[in-house]
Amino acid sequence: MSPALIAVLPFIGALLPGLLIRSGRDVAAISCATATFVALLGLCLHIPAIMAGEVVTARFAWLPSLGLNAHFRIDGLGLLFGILILGIGLLIIAYARHYLSREDPVGVFYTYLMLFQGAMLGIVLSDNILLLLVFWELTSLSSFLLIGYWKHLPEGRQGARMALTVTGMGGLAMIAGMLILGNIAGSFDIGDILQAREAIQASPYYLPALLLILLGAFTKSAQFPFHFWLPHAMAAPTPVSAYLHSATMVKAGLFLMARLWPVLSGTPEWFYIVATTGLVTMVLAAWIAIFRDDLKSLLAFSTVSHLGLITMLLGFGTEAAAVAAVFHIINHATFKAALFMTAGIIDHETGTRSIARLGGLRRLMPVTFVIGTVAALSMAGIPPLNGFLSKELMLEEATHAAWQGSPVLVAAMATLGALFSVCYSLRFVWQVFFGPERQDYPHRPHDPGFGLWCAPALLVVLVVLIGLFPAGMAGWLVEASASAVTGTAQHPHLTLWHGVTPALMLSITALVGGALLLALNRRLLAMRAAMAWLDAKAIFDAVTRAATCAAGVFTDRLTNGSMSRAFAAFSLTVVLCGFWAFSTGGWQGATRPMLPVQPVPLVGWVALMVATCCMVAFHRHRILALVLVGIIGLMVSVSFIYLSAPDLALTQISVEVVTVILLLLALNFLPKFTVIDSRDRKRGMDAFVATLTGLGFGALAYVIMRSDFAFSPISEYMLANSYRLGGGDNVVNVILVDFRGYDTFGEITVLGIAALTIFALTETLLAGASGRRLRNWVHDSRRAGDRHPLMLVVVTRLVLPIALVVGLYIFLRGHNMPGGGFVAGLVVAVALVSQYMASGFAWAQERQKINYHALIGAGVIAAGLTGIGAWFAGLPFLSSTYGYVKLPGLEEFELASAMGFDLGVFLCVVGAVMLALNSLSRIARQAGATVNLDPMDIDPSKEARR
Amino acid sequence: MELLLSSAIGTLTAAGVYLILRLRTFAVVLGMTMLSYAINLFLFSTGRLVVNAPPILQKGVEVHTDPLPQALVLTAIVISFGMTAVVVMMALGAFIEGGDDRVDMPRADRMPGDDQA
Fold first, then answer.
1. Cα A132–Cα A134–Cα A138 angle in degrees, nearest 5
2. What digits encode the pLDDT tens for the residues A850-863?
């Protein structure tokens, strides 16, 4: 099965619970389990090839220009993690089916779980670090959903937020690190990066890249000082904890370190940063775990400690240590998942996870007792269980590591960590299962049904089998993955008995010491209570609160509810940034000659400037201001004509007409004059801000116009290929409907949405209190006596067919001459609106058969279908084609597929403009505008007939 | 010519910004219209000014102005109409619902302890 398909299967599985949950929880669980199982099966089919040393790949180009490709690979490391993710995922699906209660939305849970599984699987199967980053962020997001699954619990929400903040922050750092790494290696493919060890380690950017990547890995794998999020994530349902914190989420950081081990490790920086962090985390977290009262919290800190252990092994940078690390990843996943599930069972059956309230469960829950004890003893590192084997390998490696020349420091600390680990593991067993039976459990404890204990039981069987027959059970997997991590073939010799080695001695020391420590537990607890204890959550909360406060103070000052203040601040910022950018840039001075000034443009300029100044001076007189807007718009269109942009001029002038009509319709209700309500000082300040912005913007335009192009414009390509590829002579139109057709498609959609927004606003205005207010509206100006004058009606009727023909003409010629769908749409809209103006809304509406919503929809669909049509010719979306057609009676003419697209633009523009104006007139009708049945108020023909 | 156009852009911008800074909706709408003119002209001018060379392919004509800014501005003009229409509608709605056409939040509703505006 293709690695890509394996990676996609969980995502397909994520859709199933939503579709099938109506058929019951079992069906939803089975659908997820099936998807997982098929993926696992597909993965396992590759085992022979991978054991033979091959790397299975699947490669799809995604955004090759960015180096982002959907390249997947399965090698030994990917295989190991894939088996853990899917195998334990399968068990979790079964376990969760029985764990979640009837009230919990199970479908949602399974969807989140499958999303998370897919994201994790994506990380371990990616052969491209950018793709890996995408999946990496997906794990942060989907784990956020999973941790916060019990939305009603504040701890769940806080834990989820904290996990997202910490891992998300690390993820951001890692993006930067990965980009640096990819740039050094010259490729974002993992296969290529793994070959570039010398170049990467010699680069001056090695240390920054290493630090940033490790920041991502450490936050994800909860290494000190980022360990604090993991215990708080325990607010999640136990199946989630068991999955995230044994086999998946927190192992992602380890996976990354293992993945990049061949290129990043082996330097002193790597050793001191990674090994030290791992060592500190291991000891510190194990120490904390001894004192936790909550079972899941104890397991959480023990997880942090074991993650530290593995990190330390990877940090040693030796091949033997890498083998030990890989082996411990397997062992930890098995016993820790079993332990979490045991904790879940205890919680489920007794109603509490507090160790202080438990004890004596040995006889009450015998099955759980056996499972929990075996798993915990493995965690303690007691022979002959699998935890013992890898712990011994770890101690062995620790004796070889020298920290700053001290040969015993690492070994001593590692033994201490192991000792603590023995202590908390034994405490788990002793204080939960042994001791006297109690009478005050919240529920009467008993063993759960088979469904709940079969998953951990299966894992515990593995724990024992791997412990007894390490070479046979796990040797092949360790061999394959260790070879993939180190990049050279490894043949580890895993066995239960190594003889009397220093590591065995240290192991025995840890066991005895741990047991003694447990005996002293009561005294230790007292000691610990006396110790000042820094609560990481309090620090985290204080930091986030301070950051939120600072941001709040800043934004509240800027946006306190006063729009003008916010906008002034924005304008000033833009001007200052622009000025700063310009002063630090290297403008060489004007290189383009000025065009000579002709008299006619000069007149136009004077008209524009005078109109603008008058506009500012008289804007309080709103009708006059509208007239001035018209003049300004006209001058802008004229300047477009003069400066070789006929299409723009046509569009501008027709938009001008509809804009003015729109504003007039609005003024029907709004006050006709603006009162003065700002003080002189504010107006002075505003004038200052406005002048500064205007000067900045004008100067920028001047500088651009007097400078030559920095590099040759891409439009040269469009000019050269407009006819050949697009079949049109009007390059602007070809750009709109072909080269940049996708943009235009988006734009007409936006226009349609704007019109629908207006419609929706109108609907709310016409209903409720505002609708009542409108019905009693008192207009502030007198209505005209002859509202539908004869002359206007007659002229608009005459003009209508002419305007429609002009619209059609402009539309048809648009591909080769100035015109096109936008302009034609506007012209037709103006022709239709003039009917409304002449004969009134109701009269025109009665003759209007086409729904404007349908027009907009038809436009978007027509444009979309034209684009899709290109697929049938095997071309990308929106490629156009053209040909020449000869119809009898007509000259030969060109027909381009782009015309279909332009038709969509046309329909959308007509629909949007008409819907906007129509909405305004509906408001007018609500406010008591007379509904006329005749086209005009005074109709001479009627009189004559009479 | 460049000087004329850039001074026109600057003046339109200044007028637009000044009007947007007013406290009544209609002035803000007018200001946005003015600012749209300025920005459209500015975008257009990035293609540099060329007289009598429309980007329409004809036999024997070799010089064409840059068509790309024109295509961008063409859609920008239509979109700015859509934007103006929505803003006008919102202004109208606010006036009908609230009975006044101020743009700023009433002082009583603002963030507490922040009234030096």
1. 110
2. 889 999 999 999 98
CATH class of segment(s) B2-51+64-105: mainly alpha
User: Which chain B residues are closer than 8 Å to A774 by Cβ?
Assistant: 96
Cβ <8 Å between B104 and A754: no
Do the domain assignments include residue A899?
A: yes
Cα-to-chain-centroid distance, residue B38: 6
Does the beta carbon of A677 lie under 8 angstroms from any beta carbon of chain B? yes
- Total domains in chain A come to 3
- Assess contact for A141 and A150: CB atoms under 8 A: no
Residue A121 inside a domain? The answer is: no
* CA trace torsion B1, B2, B6, B11 (10° rounding): -10
Length of chain B: 117
Q: Within this chain, do residues A739 and A643 fall inside the same structural domain, yes or no?
A: no
pLDDT tens per residue across span A449-471: 888 888 899 999 999 998 888 88
A760 and A648 in one domain?
no
- Name the token pair of A509: 């020391």
Q: How many CB pairs under 8 A join A and B?
A: 323
Distance of alpha carbon B30 from alpha carbon B22, whole angstroms: 10
pLDDT beneath 50: ranges in chain A: 532
> How many angstroms separate the CA of residue B101 from the nearest CA in chain A?
8
Same domain? A616 vs A487: no
Where do the domains of chain B lie? 2-51+64-105
Residue of A644, A650, A656 best to disrupt the B interface, most CBs of B under 10 A: A644
Instruction: Please check whether residue A945 lies inside any domain of the structure.
Output: yes
pLDDT at A689: 94
What ipTM does the predicted assembly reach?
0.93
Q: Do B51 and A643 touch (CB under 8 A)?
A: yes
Decide which of A655, A672, A689 is a domain's last residue: A672
Q: Which of residues 55-114 of B touch A (CB under 8 A)?
A: 55-58, 64-68, 70-71, 73-75, 77-86, 88-93, 95-97, 101-107, 109-111, 114
The residue range of the domain holding A331 is 283-314+325-519
